[in-house]
From TrEMBL:
The keyword Nucleotidyltransferase does not apply. Keywords: Acetylation, Actin-binding, Coiled coil, Muscle protein. This is Troponin I, fast skeletal muscle. Residues 32-111 form a coiled coil. GO terms for biological process: cardiac muscle contraction; skeletal muscle contraction. InterPro entries: Troponin (IPR001978), Troponin_I (IPR050875), Troponin_sf (IPR038077). It comes from Rhinopithecus bieti (Black snub-nosed monkey).
Amino acid sequence: LGDSCSSSGYKRNRAITARRQHLKSVMLQIAATELEKDKSRREAEKQNYLAEHCPPLHIPGSMSEVQELCKQLHAKIDAAEEEKYDMEVKVQKSSKELEDMNQKLFDLRGKFKRVRMSADAMLKALLGSKHKVCMDLRANLKQVKKEDTEKVHAAGGAPQHLKNIMRRSKSAWKCRKKMFETES
């Protein structure tokens, strides 16, 4: 029983592998024909372009006709050179504008760089190192028991500890405000 299962599994895997190889060869044949079609299409486009833009050259027999042909060719060359110069100027102008825009974008990104800083570090940066300021808001908070908050909420008023914190923060702000005003 074990041999028959393994041999049928082997045959199935082999059939799947053969099917994959057949599909791969068919896909490669299709790709090769598409490449040939593409190559012949490009060659036809090239011939059409050359026929349209480069008519066959008729070499005249007399000297005056040759000189006239040279004048015509020089005029076409001059026109092509002028067009080339205009295009180069446009490209240079566009690239300069692009560089300016990139520089402005870079400058704008630099102006709005996000910096994470604690309140103590911000005050130290503003006031300098001569002032020792500590603004630890968590230290100002006091522990409140759950029962006390429930009593206050049941009474319908604001909790007393919130009133105390607001009073302390107002007085601390007034003190800092005076310190800023004296430095200015």
